[in-house]
């Protein structure tokens, strides 16, 4: 028994793999928990059951106790699997212990050898003990066994070097380990999300069919009682009701909702819309086309979309309610929503400003010019221009280039004296503006 | 401002909307009025008695602003003049328009004045002489449209101021004044 290491290596202790820099090679899922320096491992028994390991670093992991000599020559790095630990003795406080170095004893199989850990240096021994208990009771190796049951024992860790495991992946060590773990978590989350969305996409692609199918079924259910006069028994009725309920719960808005709600549906929609339009109306300058509002409203509603006809009906109902907005139909057929307080006066004065500028006096304006100046949609701008024309503010010029509007000079021209141009007035300014061009 | 011969065009001739028939009633009425005056003014200056709607009439297009009147606009403006009794459609299709910057009655008065000025109260003249004779040279009657002249003469005949009689050839009717 000259060399106790034979017992250690073959029995209690295993050789611990270390990296070239002397760090223990951590196995898969093994996490370092504690490190203490200047530690001896002694045999309690007399005679000693193994050669004492003197002066090394003790590393506690979730799976093992690893002892690594400070000087690589003196002894081989050894480890005790926590799986083999049968008992950890409680720390005895005595007068004797006051003078001794702190020590912790534990018993381990095979052979129920009692090992004493002697701390010769400084460190948080109590913390170590606590952690030791935790790791021992945590039994992390049991998880490991389940996973690695298929992995051949021979491959475990013999060729591992540095931070890389046998499979070439980075080990879970230190900061890199944490980062890697984060990364893996993120990837798995991502994957599960993707899977989830794939399901959703599949559902979406089927949704249309689902809706039409459900509609068809509903129609059948509705028509059935009338066609099969009185022949329906209770069971059938029950199942039909169930079916109806089920389809409603799926979230298919069927015409039943509208039919049953009747005018109420549009009334409620109408009120909701009246509340909603305020902000888009403000942004649009007091008037917004029905098309634009349809977009705004449905966008706000998300999935509960309404049809253009519903919107129109809801707007039409405003006349009956005391709401500050109204539906207005232009002569051209364009329909807009506008504030009741909204007056054309302001728009007209802005158009007047636009067309009496020297440049526009001469060239006139198109609907898109006006749209830019008034910051409204071209279709709306055209309506305003047409209104201004009706009021006699503008006159039109139809040419191959399109429709342009000019400030209406006709009222200012004296029919009894065709060549007379007043010094003041827009006609005079127009003459100046056009003569500038010809010079 | 561009000119057509001696005729000075008004400033608004370069106003593009002037060449588009205005859809708004008030504006359109004013536009029609201005066209009416301009056409009559021009015809009087240039002694134009006949305007063909589909023919090139100098006023109906403006190359400066690259605008011209549509057929509808031309007919509308001429019809307005007709409505005032200052022009007449010569056909049902409204393709030719007789411009009367003087009404027939006014032309008749001018003829009477011409007769008195030249001491022709009891004379005999041919119709052609009235239009192109030395007496009418420099007067408004020079080059008068034959249709207009005949209608003015007929008006005077009805009033007993003259008698029309057939000459030897078809284009040579005689007039016997008896003012």
TrEMBL record, chain A:
Keywords assigned by UniProt, alphabetized: Coiled coil, Cytoplasm, Endosome, Protein transport, Transport
UniProt domain GLUE N-terminal: residue ranges: 16-148
GO BP terms in the entry: protein transport to vacuole involved in ubiquitin-dependent protein catabolic process via the multivesicular body sorting pathway
InterPro entries in alphabetical order: GLUE_dom, PH-like_dom_sf, Snf8/Vps36, Vps36, WH-like_DNA-bd_sf, WH_DNA-bd_sf
Gene3D superfamilies: 6.10.140.260, Pleckstrin-homology domain (PH domain)/Phosphotyrosine-binding domain (PTB), Winged helix-like DNA-binding domain superfamily/Winged helix DNA-binding domain
Subcellular location: Cytoplasm; Endosome
Domain of life (superkingdom): Eukaryota
Transmembrane helix found in the keyword field: no
GO cellular component assignments: ESCRT II complex; late endosome membrane
GO molecular function list: phosphatidylinositol-3-phosphate binding; ubiquitin binding
Biological function: Component of the ESCRT-II complex (endosomal sorting complex required for transport II), which is required for multivesicular body (MVB) formation and sorting of endosomal cargo proteins into MVBs.
Quaternary assembly: Component of the endosomal sorting complex required for transport II (ESCRT-II).
UniProt similarity note: Belongs to the VPS36 family.
Protein name: Vacuolar protein-sorting-associated protein 36
Organism: Arabis nemorensis
Lineage: Eukaryota, Viridiplantae, Streptophyta, Embryophyta, Tracheophyta
From TrEMBL, chain B:
GO cellular component term of the entry, any: ESCRT II complex
Superkingdom of the source species: Eukaryota
GO process terms (BP): macroautophagy; protein transport to vacuole involved in ubiquitin-dependent protein catabolic process via the multivesicular body sorting pathway
Entry keywords, A to Z: Protein transport, Transport
Keyword presence, Transport: yes
GO MF annotation terms: protein homodimerization activity; structural molecule activity
Pfam families the record matches: ESCRT-II (PF05871)
Similarity-based family: Belongs to the VPS25 family.
Name of the protein described by the UniProt record: ESCRT-II complex subunit VPS25
């Amino acid at each position: 028994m000259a060399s106790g290491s034979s017992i250690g290596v073959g029995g209690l202790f295993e050789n611990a793999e270390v990296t070239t820099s002397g760090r223990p090679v951590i196995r898969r899922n093994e996490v370092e928990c504690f490190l203490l320096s200047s530690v001896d491992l002694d045999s309690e028994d007399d005679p000693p059951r193994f050669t004492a390991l003197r002066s090394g670093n003790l590393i506690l992991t979730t799976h093992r106790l690893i002892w690594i000599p400070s000087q690589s020559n003196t002894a081989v790095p050894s480890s005790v699997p926590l799986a083999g630990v049968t008992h950890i003795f409680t720390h005895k406080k005595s007068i004797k212990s006051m003078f001794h170095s702190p020590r912790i004893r534990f018993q381990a199989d095979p052979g129920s050898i009692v090992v004493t850990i002697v701390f010769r240096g400084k460190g948080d021994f109590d913390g170590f003990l606590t952690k030791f208990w935790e790791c021992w009771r945590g039994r992390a190796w049991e998880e490991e066994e389940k996973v690695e049951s298929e992995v051949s024992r021979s491959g475990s860790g013999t060729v591992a070097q540095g931070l890389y495991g046998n499979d070439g992946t980075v080990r879970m060590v230190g900061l890199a380990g944490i980062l890697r773990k984060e990364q893996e978590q993120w990837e798995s989350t991502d994957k599960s999300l993707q899977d989830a969305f794939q399901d959703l996409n599949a559902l979406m692609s089927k949704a249309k069919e689902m809706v039409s199918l459900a509609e068809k079924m509903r129609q059948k259910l509705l028509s059935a009682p009338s066609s099969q006069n009185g022949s329906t028994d209770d069971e059938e009725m029950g199942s039909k009701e169930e079916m109806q309920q089920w389809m409603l719960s799926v979230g298919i808005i069927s015409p039943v909702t509208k039919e049953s709600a009747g005018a109420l549906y549009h009334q409620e929609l109408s009120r909701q819309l009246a509340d909603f339009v305020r902000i888009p109306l403000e942004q649009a300058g007091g008037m917004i086309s029905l098309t634009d509002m349809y977009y705004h409203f449905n966008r706000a509603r998300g999935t509960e979309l309404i049809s253009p006809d519903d919107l129109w009906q809801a707007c039409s109902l405003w006349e009956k309610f005391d709401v500050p907005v109204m539906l207005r139909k232009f002569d051209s057929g364009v329909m807009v929503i506008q504030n009741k307080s909204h007056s054309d006066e302001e728009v007209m004065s802005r158009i007047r400003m636009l067309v009496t500028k020297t440049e526009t006096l001469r060239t006139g304006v198109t609907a898109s010019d006006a749209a830019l100046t008034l910051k409204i949609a071209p279709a709306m701008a055209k309506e305003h221009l047409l209104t201004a024309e009706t009021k006699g503010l503008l006159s039109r010029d139809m040419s191959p280039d399109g429709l342009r509007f000019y400030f209406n000079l006709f009222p200012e021209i004296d029919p009894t004296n065709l060549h007379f141009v007043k010094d003041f007035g827009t006609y005079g300014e127009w003459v100046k503006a056009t003569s500038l061009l010809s010079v | 401002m561009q000119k057509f011969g001696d005729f000075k065009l008004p400033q608004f001739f370069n106003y593009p909307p002037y060449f588009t028939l205005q859809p708004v009633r008030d504006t359109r009425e004013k536009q029609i009025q201005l066209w009416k005056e301009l056409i009559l003014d021009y015809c009087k200056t240039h002694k134009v008695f006949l305007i063909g709607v589909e023919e090139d009439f100098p006023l109906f297009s403006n190359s400066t602003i690259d605008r011209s009147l549509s057929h509808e606009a031309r007919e509308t403006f001429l019809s307005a003049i007709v409505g005032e009794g200052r022009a007449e459609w010569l056909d049902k299709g409204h393709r030719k328009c007789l411009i009367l910057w003087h009404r027939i009655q006014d032309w008749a008065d001018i003829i009477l004045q011409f007769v008195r000025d030249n001491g022709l109260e009891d004379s005999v003249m041919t119709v052609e002489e009235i239009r192109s004779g030395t007496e009418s040279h420099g007067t408004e009657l020079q080059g008068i449209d034959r249709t207009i002249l005949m209608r003015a003469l007929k008006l005077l005949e009805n009033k007993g101021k003259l008698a029309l009689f057939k000459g030897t050839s078809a284009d040579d009717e005689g007039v016997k004044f008896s003012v």
